[in-house]
Amino acid sequence: MKSQAAPECQRCTFREFSLFKNCQQGELEDINENKCFHTYKKGQVIFHEGNRPFGLFCVFDGKVKISRLNAEGKEQIIRLAKPGDTLGYRSLIENAKYSASAVALDDTQACFVPASDFNKLVDSNVKVANDLMKMLAKALGESQERMIHMAMKPVRERLAEALLLLRSTYQKAESAEPFSIAISRDDLAAIVGTAKETVIRFLSEFKEDGIVSAHGSTITLLKPERLLKISQLYD
Q: Which CATH architecture has domain 153-231?
């Protein structure tokens, strides 16, 4: 992990979509003065499950997976993060150890806001505190929905859903090309909640049906509408 020149919070490209969208100018200046900016290589851990939080992470560039180990010691990816997303806020609020790890899926840049600065902001800015509560409620709802899907949906439907999740998270709004992403089969299996071999088998079926194409680790969604129908079979 290495530091480099940081973007200014006041002019951040993702400010209007982030937890800090309702900050006052002076508050942004204070955060900008005290934050750190780091670059993480693909596969590098941003924070470890079981460690204590010392601040908040804001993704500026790249892709991040938030994952934890289940009772059998297998990885489960519980969330995907993109530029503008905030990491580690729940553990920071609870003053509890991280319940999951954050790992860079590709080269990633993130700002680190010390806990003291973040807590001061939440205590003094009602709008930020409300946005934080909404973020927590949304995360809880998504977690509950994921648990239901893991219990009720077969693997084929969950794989279709996972591919659509990757698309909704990482597709650039201005792109007219079919969505493509480089992702390991291990990571895809950790999102779906199954074995890598099972993911490979169902991906092959999707390829034969012309729904996706795959070259190396890169998967392209050729017919997302077919994936949507498959994902909704058990809704």
A: Orthogonal Bundle (1.10)
